[in-house]
Every structure is written in C-alpha cells, then in structure tokens.
Amino acid sequence: MADTRFGCAPFARITLIPRPLWRDTLNDGLAEALRPLCKKPVSETLILDASLEESSGALTKALRELFNLDWQLDDLGLHQVKTVRPRLRQLALYALPEQRSALDTLTHRQRATAHGMLAARRLADLPAEQCTPQYVVEEARRLCADIPTLRCEVLDEKAIVEQGLGLLHAVGKGAERPPRLLAIHYDGVSEGPVRCYVGKGVTFDTGGLWLKEGAGMYTMKYDMCGAANVLGLMLSIAELALPVRVMGVLALAENAIGPAAMQPAASPGPVMA
C-alpha cells in the first residue's frame, strides 16, 4: 500500500509508493496508489520522483495511469450543480542528469499517446445526440487541421452508395443523420506499404427494426469506440512522426428505427454487396 503524509512543508502532500507496486504489471495496485493524486489533488503541481526507478516500463505505466486518471469531460454542462473540482495542471519529473535524455524521449512518447487516447475517450463519452457521424467527421478534421502530415477524405451518403459500400449504407439508411466514411491518411515516408486500420463507428445502435432490449441498448453509444480509437491512433502516430505510411478508416453510421431501416434478416442484394 502507498503511504501518504500531509503537512510536509514546503509540500502539501508526500505519497510513498513501494517498489513492488511499480513493478506489478498484472494488477491495478499502481493505479490505485496514483488515483488520489488526480481525483483529490491538494496542489495543481505533481512532482514525480523518477530517479530511483531503473525500468522505463514502470515509469511508462505510471505516466499512462496519470494521464488516464486525470481525464475529465467538464465542458458540456451536463451537471445541474456546477462544482469546482481541483485538478492537476502540471506534472514535473525529478531525475538525475544522466537520465534526462531518456526521460525526454519517454515523456514525449507518452504525451503523444495520451493525446490520442484522450481524443478517443472524449468522443466515446459524448452523448449520442451530439456525437453523430457528421460530428465525428468535423471533430476529426478539427484535430487534424494543424497536423501537416494528416489529411482527411470523406464520403457522404451518396458517395457511399456509388462506391458500393452497401453494408455501411444499409446500417445508416434508416436514420435522419446519414452515414459517413472518413479516411485519414498519414505519410511519414514517401514510399512503402500502407498499413490500414478500420474502426467501427456506429454512433448509436438501436438494433434497427430488430430492436435491442432496454438493458442492452443503454451502452450502444459505445459502438463507435472502434472508430474513436482509430482517430486517436492516427493523432498519436502523427505526433510521434513515425516513419510509416498509415490509413485510418472510420465507418460512421447511426443504426436507427425508421421507414427506411434495413429489414431484419434481409437477403444481401446488390445494394449490400
């Protein structure tokens, strides 16, 4: 267990984390020890002593846990009672001079990973009423706009049919919010094979005319997490400037109930081929 001590001037709180927790890769002990530092911070600055940890893997895990635990979605006005929640604003790492170069590389990688991860989590946590196929496209364009190595290509509902993408069309044709296919291209090198990652982006899945039961429908906004993860992956790859060529494809649709919804057990025809 971590040992927390208060009133240790000039520090507001000192938390001692045993080395076995740093090296535990199977359980959540490290996350549990770090959780109070993010959920109930006593200061806007957290100083993490990295000088004693020989393994970069442990520090990598700690940084990922901190980035993950610090995640908040406070800008939507979802809470009826507005509360001021303290949060960390700065993370400082203490290390020996000879560790500086390796530490700079490690923190850059984890920061890039966190940027992609948090972008994905934000999309996943947005209400389905807001996070529509077109919204995901606009958000992706916004996030990619300042990154020269990323470019976006979008197919609307007409182009989806023209390109023979019948399954995506069939899933989304019953909704008022039409489907979209978003391709994000990254060229870290001029030649070589293109790696392709495809993410399922059903922004809400009612089941269509084959309606899901209430308990099963509650979490169906998360049917777009595959697409959100692909977007986050592309952002992280670009920030890391990896020497690869990658295409991320987000298949975006809302599976809704309506006169045009796909019939249950419909036979695959030319439109769905």
From TrEMBL:
InterPro entries: Leucine_aapep/pepB, Peptidase_M17_C
Record key words, sorted: Aminopeptidase, Hydrolase, Manganese, Protease
Known EC number: 3.4.11.1
Any single Gene Ontology cellular-component annotation: cytoplasm
Gene Ontology MF, one: metalloaminopeptidase activity
SUPFAM superfamilies named in the record: Zn-dependent exopeptidases (SSF53187)
EC class (word): hydrolase
GO biological process, alphabetically ordered: proteolysis
Coiled coil: none
Superkingdom of origin organism: Bacteria
Domain Cytosol aminopeptidase residue range list: 120-264
Family per similarity comment: Belongs to the peptidase M17 family.
Name this protein carries in UniProt: Cytosol aminopeptidase
Name of the encoding gene: pepA_2
